[in-house]
Design goal:
Blueprint: E1 2-5, H1 8-19, E2 23-27, E3 30-33, E4 44-48, E5 70-73, H2 77-87, E6 90-91, E7 100-104, E8 110-114
Parallel strand pairs: 1-4, 5-8
Antiparallel strand pairs: 2-3, 3-4, 6-7, 7-8
């Protein structure tokens, strides 16, 4: 998955810490997080967008819509939220489900933690 951002390196470091994965590339306009060689998993790419606008969540008419979000399964929702906030996420003001928590990463992209 590739995520557009105004600051690829910072966002890669955030997700690397959140997910306990290494940053495997960190250039001025592109960064990447993925598991070490030989370990199964997903790759996150962060690409610089010159005219990036933070998404508004939940969406509102005329606001920048989030074009994608990550769903991350966790064993302990409260502990995972606490960890995400310690990493730099912000708990979203609107929470539509009891067993899911919506957070915003440092560049405003929503992501969900769920049991």
């Amino acid at each position: 998955m590739t995520i557009g951002t105004s600051r690829p390196g910072e966002l890669a470091r955030f997700y690397a810490r959140l997910l306990d994965l290494p940053v495997t590339a960190d250039e001025s306009e592109w960064a990447q997080v993925r598991p070490p060689e030989g370990v199964a998993g997903f790759t996150l790419n962060f690409e610089y967008e010159r005219h990036y606008a933070r998404p508004v969540w939940p969406s509102v008419p005329g606001g920048q819509t989030a074009s994608q979000h990550l769903d991350i399964q966790v064993d302990d929702l409260a502990a995972a939220v606490e960890w995400a906030v310690a990493c730099g996420a912000v708990l979203a003001g609107f929470q539509p489900q009891d067993d899911v928590r919506v957070l915003l990463d440092p560049d405003g992209h929503p992501f969900c933690l769920f049991l």
